[in-house]
Amino acid sequence: MSMFKIPVAVAKAIGKLQKQFFWGDTLEKRKVHLLKWEKVTKKKEFGGLGVRRVIQQNLALLARWWWRFNEDKDSLWVKVIRGKYNLDNGVWLPSLPRSGCISNLWRDICSLGDPSSSIGPVLSEGFRIQVHSGQDTSFWNHIWLGDRTLKEAFPRLFLISNQKEDTVRSVKDGSGNAQWKLQFRTRRMNVWETNLSEGLHQRLDLVTLDQAKRDVLQWKWTADKRLSSKSVYQQWEQIGQSRNQLLGSLWKNLCPPKVEIFSWMAIQDRVPTRSVLVSRNIIQEGQSVSCPLCSLQLETPDHLFLHCFFSWNVWSLILDWWHVSWVCPNSLSDLALWWFDNGFRNLEKNIWEASFYATLWSMWLARNDLVFNNATLNVEVVGELVKTRVAMWMKTKFGIKVYSVEEFKLFLDGIRKLKL
Ligand SMILES: [Zn+2]
Description:
With about 425 residues, the protein is mainly alpha-helical. About 50% of the residues lie in helices and about 0% in strands. The chain has a two-stranded antiparallel sheet with strand order 1-2.
């Protein structure tokens, strides 16, 4: 996978397996896919689950070869490639010869840097040349001063330059202390061209060359300045994304992962309540779409987890446990925003936040027990289960051994102030 570009059909097949595994599909039955895969594969801080995308992961691995073409310049494989495709030392990055027979592998590696490739923009933005001797670096055409080529930063000067293909070294003629010798077409420069030229000189004056060292390629997004596949993937997944304050902060490791994922879906209205199943044509005409707890309203996630009298009572019971008063918000996501924007610190913050996950999860299990097993509903029983879950999760996570689960439930006021 790290050497060859994955065929699209194979990538699709792997992606399909990933989805089937995630949603719990079996050969006989396809489960409801409640969220778009693009959403699931977003990074957690952007509101997703951080599941990796096959094609981009493959391209990011392949990008190591794209980079190593320069890093390994003295190795045999690079010499063979340079010889075969007639690429001189001024060519820093994998590039295609103008004509001739080209292997698919080399073509795939070169194409990574294309702006049309999904990681192309990451690669072209991520590297620059650290100039030492300036001998292998093109003055106008390589990125070595600032974040763009000088050709892009000073297009007018490039147009009238007589040194379009010169190296940095040859523009700075003579010994290391020599002046920059920019040459332009022999005519008088107008005022704005002169200003541009002075601006360029000011930037160049900050550069000193060192004859003894070769120029090197640097990668912007790693501490050691070398490209890593991980950094390519991370940069790619940030393109066009912005932080999702609520969904990005749900991953606190206070409860089992399945409960965290369930809460993440519930806050986005993406759990299989009857309203959601109707919208996906899973529930047929004639079947009940009302809330199984009260039979009074359509069973939307907001109703089931918040507005139904049963759920409202469970939340009130848990908030009583905390001596916190509340006003029922409009939606579950509003409740979550309020819940996680709390003034608690240390252990009590963790117990408070775990109470949110435990309440949601316990209500969902009670609802399913009612729907599938005809169990009876009881607010007090669900409230006790919430407290038990919180106590067990907290005892496990923080190693609180001196209090039993029952004591934890009874003496919350004292336990929440414990110093760990
Ligand atoms: Zn209801």
